[in-house]
Hints:
Helices cover 0% and strands 38% of the residues. It is an all-beta fold and 95 residues long.
Amino acid sequence: MQAVRRGEEVFDGDAGFDLAGGFLDTERVIAKEFEGQTFLFTADILDMVDVIDYPSDAVTDEPLPDGRGVWSTFDFRTGRLQVWKDPFAPGPLTI
């Protein structure tokens, strides 16, 4: 499956998608806006459906999904890695 959409079709102004992102699961895509928030989109046409609400001390850079409802974020400056699981995704978090 492939989903294609230009950033200016989704975000206000001339904002665009960050390089990281991908399929969170078979029905959703996770992607980050340049220097902005991380969003969930439908996998088929990339309609925005939700905003990821991270805790205030969270690493929010580079969302890298595994396709099973789990993604990681990594801060290159500090070397800090965090792993996240969609609370609505089925099954336990196994890494």
